[in-house]
Here is the input.
Amino acid sequence: MKRSVTIAGHRTSLSLEPEFWTLLQAAAEEDGTPLSQLVARIDEARTTNLSSAIRVWLLNRLLAKLDAASGAGGIAEGLSGKLSGEFSGELSGD
Here is the structure.
């Protein structure tokens, strides 16, 4: 599903599956941040295409929530330690 988002005053088109759009919108609402501002934050830190960076950011956010819910040594902590690439150290979603 393609949608347009404004980043730093420029419109850009993003292709994400509907499930990822739902998660991204929920993350923005939870953070009290406009969707475009959250996407801009992810865009600033990315090293790959923006759609992939958003998917990885969302995965890491969910892993961090799983770790927080299960406590130290949970499966999410083990998975996050095995993940490499961008945002691997940014599990808090910030």
Q: What stands out?
A: Strands lie at 2-7, 10-15. Residues 2-82 form a domain with the Ribbon-helix-helix fold fold (CATH 1.10.3990.20).
